[in-house]
Amino acid sequence: MDKCSVTPKIVVTLSSTNNDWKETIERLSENMSYIDMMEYRADLCGELAVEDYIADLKMLKEQFTLPLIFTYRSKGQGGKGEKEPHAYYELVKEIVAANIIDIIDIELLLYEDLMDELIEAARMHHVQVLISHHEFDHTPSSKDLIALYNRMQGLGADFSKVAVMPADVRDVLKLLLAVYETKQNCDNHIVGIAMGEQGKLSRIAGGSFGSSLTYGHIGEEAAPGQLHVKQLKSLLEIY
Ligand SMILES: O=C1C[C@@](O)(C(=O)O)C[C@@H](O)[C@@H]1O
User: Fold this and answer.
1) 223 Cα–ligand 1 center, Å
2) Closest ligand 1 atom, CA of 216?
3) How many distinct structural domains can be found in the chain?
4) Domain residues for 95?
5) Residue nearest to atom 6 of ligand 1 (CA)
6) Residue 70 CA to ligand 1 centre (angstroms)
7) 35 domain residue, yes or no
8) Which phi and psi angles does 110 have, rounded to 5°?
9) Which of 102, 103, 147, 171 lies 20 to 30 angstroms, CA to CA, from 126?
């Protein structure tokens, strides 16, 4: 086994419509043995008050003791979040201070001074930092992807995540190579996701290249190409 090879943790992406969690909770309970972590996608739950997001997080954490990631994905990054950078910053800061989550997803595109403050707040509250970036228009070269990962590392990310929308399998290879090369020189978590049909390979085999997390669903895909966690688990066993 290559020294970079890891067994990726399976993260389930969660959200509710109209604050109705009943079905999601049932599905979560049924699929617990395939899941290592939960991701709460705040932007997919609607523009709620901070207290309402916190109530959801508490409910999830009380019922399922798995590590919990908070993500508010902005529109430009493939989510539904409408918040401007300062409102995004305020929300994330309050969520971190609530001492309920384990990992905070922060978008790389955030202004650098706000990013620094958020990372400091996360450290203060013992929350791990996951810096993320989504590229939908094109897949950068492996060299540029490595530079992106290095930038995230330089900012102090515990997890550095890049997701791309590949046009062909060559783009998937570019991403996997970038994950592999970055992982050669760092001990922190690197995550590489190629979305869409062509990218499914990265969700299953990414661990062999050093990718630490793979995201799946328990009902409907939250991003193009996501697999059901049960299927993910059985495919990951091959590796
Ligand atoms: O960044 C990611 C990865 C993702 O976009 C995916 O492709 O599975 C799903 C998102 O919920 C998560 O925040």
Assistant:
1) 6
2) 8
3) 1
4) 9-131+199-238
5) 223
6) 12
7) yes
8) -60, 145
9) 147
170 is in an annotated binding site: no
Q: How far apart are CA 178 and CA 184, in angstroms?
A: 10
User: pLDDT (tens digit, 0 to 9) for every residue of the chain, 239 residues total?
Assistant: 576 889 999 999 999 988 889 999 999 999 999 999 999 999 999 999 999 999 999 999 999 999 999 999 999 999 999 999 999 999 999 999 999 999 999 999 998 899 999 999 999 999 999 999 999 999 999 999 999 999 999 999 999 999 999 999 999 999 999 999 999 989 999 999 999 999 999 999 999 999 999 999 999 999 999 999 999 999 999 87
- 59 in any annotated domain: yes
Residue whose CA is closest, atom 7 of ligand 1? 223
Amino acid at 171: D
Residue 39 assigned ligand-binding role? yes
Whether 125 sits among the annotated catalytic residues: the reply is: no
Question: 133-172: b or e for each residue (b if 16 or more CB lie within 10 Å)?
Answer: bbbeeebbebeebbebbeebbebebbbbbbbbbbeeeebb
Residue 47's CATH number: 3.20.20.70
pTM: 0.97
User: For ligand 1, what atom is nearest to the CA of residue 132?
Assistant: 1
226 in a labelled binding site: yes
- Examine residue 172 and state whether it is found in any structural domain, yes or no: no
Main-chain dihedrals φ then ψ at residue 108, nearest 5 degrees: -60, -30
Ligand 1 centroid to residue 139 C-alpha, Å: 16
Angle in degrees, CA 83, 89, 95, rounded to 5: 100
51 annotated to a ligand binding site: no
Which tokens go with 163? 């997701």
- Does 161 qualify as catalytic in the annotation? yes
Residue 140 lies inside a defined structural domain of this protein? no
